[in-house]
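Comment on both lines for my students:
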Amino acid sequence: MDESRFKAPAISVVVLVVLAMAEYSHEFFRRFAFYKGLRARYPFYVPESIDKVAGALLCCLAIYWLHRLGWKNVLRELGIDAHVLRALIFALLASSPMLIGFALTRKFSPRASIPSLLFFTAFSPFVEELEFRGFGFWQLYRRARRPFWLAILPPAVLFALGHVEKGQNWQEVVGIFLLTGTGAAVFSWLLDSWQSLWVPVALHALMNLWWELFSVSRTAVGGWLPFVSQTSTVALAILLTVCAKRRGLLPKAA
């Protein structure tokens, strides 16, 4: 791995500041009339796509600046490799408890339009994994040399805080925070285990897809069955990864 131009403490500070800026970029854009106009005239996914593109670009620029990397190596630094099919197969197996559970207990009734469905199940998961796992966690762990769980914690907390606004009362807020924060920690572990951002991206995308296709709930907290289904999916993802490690099927860390 090439030497960075900054020492570990400076990298940690830059990563946390950039990650917070990326997460709350919508607060910056809300100050401008054009953005308010987009929110008034177009579906939610149009202005929110601008937020997410800006956040992703900010993370890429930070990596480029921190490590003197050429643009061809920025994606590699984020964990984006060519093993997309392997990640999809893993995600299909791991997310099967959600698919089976929802298919047996709920009607196939997607509420979202095709563009909003693609936003929820493809674009948004990719950008969130790039920012919080590929950039936030991996930079803190591999570049800033933070201890594993200390590298996981700040991105997981920021990720969870970004989702609690959907809660309608304090019980929902706490539930969403714990559920999304735990998921974020597991996704970071999956990224480090598989050495590929596509693994958490694919799992995140399919979990969102099953949730949307069966119109489970407006938030990540949807009752005991969705909770059990999500928990089973995360547990199966961990089990599959542990089994792959024991069989020597996972790549070695760079």
